[in-house]
Amino acid sequence: MRKKFLAVALAATMVIGLVGCGNSSSSSNNATTAASNDKQATEEFNPDTVKDSKTIEDIRKDNGDEVKVKGGLKMGAIAKSFSNEFWRNFKNGYEQSEKVLKDAGVDVSIKIDGTTDESDEIGQQTMTDNLVNQGYNALMLSPISDSNLTASVDNAKGKKIPTINVNDGLIASADYFVGPDAYQNGELAAEWVSKQLGDKGDVAIVIGMAKAFAARERTAGFKGWIKDNNSGLNVVAEQNADWDRQKAKELASTWIQQNPDLKAIFCNNDDMALGVVEAVEEAKKDILVVGVDGIGEAYDSIRAGKLDATVDSFGYYMSQVATEVTLRVLAGQDIPRVTHTPQALIDKTNVDKDAKDIIGWTDPKYVSE
Fold first, then answer.
1. pLDDT value of position 7
2. Contact 20, 13 (CB under 8 A)
3. Where is the composition biased (Low complexity) (predicted)?
4. Which of left, alpha, beta for 22 (phi over 0: left; psi -120 to 50: alpha)?
5. Does this chain's domain 52-178+315-341 share its CATH topology with 182-312?
6. Closest CA to 6 of 191, 197, 168
7. Measured between alpha carbons, how far is residue 207 from residues 7, 28, 66, 211, 243 in Å?
8. Superfamily of domain 182-312
C-alpha cells in the first residue's frame, strides 16, 4: 500500500513539475526508549497501513459533492501551538471552512484552540475536556502525543460525540483519522535526497517528539526508503529535537563537527529544518537540508537558496478536509476510518506554483439541511 501511495504522489509530481547532539547509536537508543510507551498506539492502529483509506476526492465521488448540513452545529478543533506557522495555517483553514459554510447560508460554528507550546500535553487535554463537557457535536483533534488525549476521547465516546484525529499524534481509539501518510513524508524526502546526491553519502535525521506518531513515521519512512531501495545513503546520526528550532540548530552544529562528510539532514518539520539551515550557514558547509510541513518561512528560505526542500502537507487545506469529513460523518454518510490528505515535495523548481493547483483543490459544496 505504501508503494502504491508513493507511486501516485510521484506521478502527480511529474505532471506538475515537482522533483518528486550525540552519536547515532546512542541517539537512536534514546529516541527508542522515549517513544516505547506511545508506540503501543501505533501497533493497535496505524493509518499509514490501512488498506481502505480514501482521499477527499474519493469520498466526494462516493457520496456526492454536496454535503447537507444541519444548522446550529457546534464543532470543536484542538491544535498544537500557534507559535508554529504550520498550526496557524491549520487554524486559518478551520476559519476558512466556517466562512464557506456561512457563505452557503449554513449556521455552523467552529471553536479553535491551540496550546501554549508544543509540549503542553495537560493543557491540551484540559481544552479537549472542556469541549466534551460543553456538549460540542464533534471534535477535531491534533494531539501532541499518542496518549495525552486518549482519556478525553473515551469521555467523548461515552457522550456519543464523534472524534476525528487530525494529523500528528495518533489517537488509536478515535473514530476517524484525517491526515497525510506520514511514512510517505519520509519516503519523498529520502528519494529527493538520493537523487540530489547520486544515491550515496552520509545523512542525518532530526526527529520531532518521540511521543508523536508523525515524528516516528516520517523517520521510519526516510530510513525505510533507503532500505527498500538498497540505497547508498548512510544514516550516521539521528536524534530528537522535540520540534524546537534552537535544539535542532545545536544538534546539527554538533553533527557537522563530528561528521565532516555529512551531505544531507532530513528534519521532521520545517521549524527544525530552518534551525539546521542556520547551523549549516554558520559552519560554511554545503549540506542539503529538507523539512516537512510547507510553512511560508520554508518557502521563502527555498526561494532564497537556503533551505533545499520541504514536503508540504498543506495544513491550510488539511483542516478544511477534516471539517468536510466531520460534517459528512454528522450527516450520516459512509466515511472510511482513514482519509489521507495531499502532500508534495517542494524545491526551487516548483516553489512558486500555487498550492491549490498542486493539489487540485476545490471548495466543498455545503447546503442547509
1. 39
2. yes
3. 23-37
4. left
5. yes
6. 191
7. 25, 10, 40, 11, 8
8. Response regulator (3.40.50.2300)
Domain 52-178+315-341 has CATH 3.40.50.720: no
Among the listed residues 208, 203, 94, the one whose alpha carbon sits nearest the alpha carbon of residue 145: 208
Q: How many residues does the chain have?
A: 369
User: Domain-by-domain residue ranges, the chain?
Assistant: 52-178+315-341, 182-312
Interacting residues of 206 by C-beta distance below 8 A, sequence separation 6+: 238, 239, 241, 248, 251, 252, 265, 266, 267, 268, 272, 273, 276
Q: Which residue has the cell 500555487?
A: 354
Q: Which is higher by pLDDT, 71 or 43?
A: 71
Digit-coded pLDDT (tens) for 77-116? 999 999 999 999 999 999 999 999 999 999 999 999 999 9
| pLDDT of 162 above 70 | yes
Please, are residues 324 and 104 in contact by the beta-carbon 8 Å criterion? Answer: no
Backbone angles phi, psi at 169, to 5 degrees: -60, 155
The per-residue pLDDT for range 233-246, each reduced to its tens digit, is 999 999 999 999 99
Whether 352 has a pLDDT exceeding 60, the answer reads yes
Q: Please report, rounded to a whole number, the percentage of residues in the chain having pLDDT higher than 70.
A: 88
Closest to 256 in 3D by CA, of 235, 284, 230, 231: 284
Residues 6+ apart with CB under 8 A from 274: 245, 291, 297, 298, 301, 307
Q: Which residues of 23-62 are buried (b: 16+ CB within 10 A; e: fewer)?
A: ebeebbeebeeebeebbebbeebbbbebeebbbbeebbee
